Amino acid sequence: MARKATGQVIERESANGTTYALRFRAYGERRFLTLGSTAEGWDRPRAEVELQNVLADVRRGIWQPPRQEPEVSRRLEVPTFHEFASEWYEGKALDLAENTRLDYLNTLSSHLLPHFARYKLAEITVEEVDRYRRSKERERAALVAALEEQAKLPADKREKLPRPLSNATINRTIKLLSRVLEQALEYGHIDRNPAKGKARLLKQSKPSRSYLQPPQVAALLAAAGELDHDARYGDTGRRRPLLAVLTLAGLRIGEALDLRWRDVNLAARRLRVVSAKTDAGVRAVDLSPTLQELLSEFKTRTRQAGPDDLVFGTSAGKRDNPSNVRNRFLKDAREIANAKLEEDGHDPIAHVSPHTLRRTFASLLLASGADVPYAMAQLGHENAQMTLNVYAKVIASKTDHGAAVDGLVGASDWAPMGTNADPIEVDA
Question: What is the pLDDT of residues 252-266, one digit of tens each?
Answer without folding.
Answer: 999 999 999 999 999
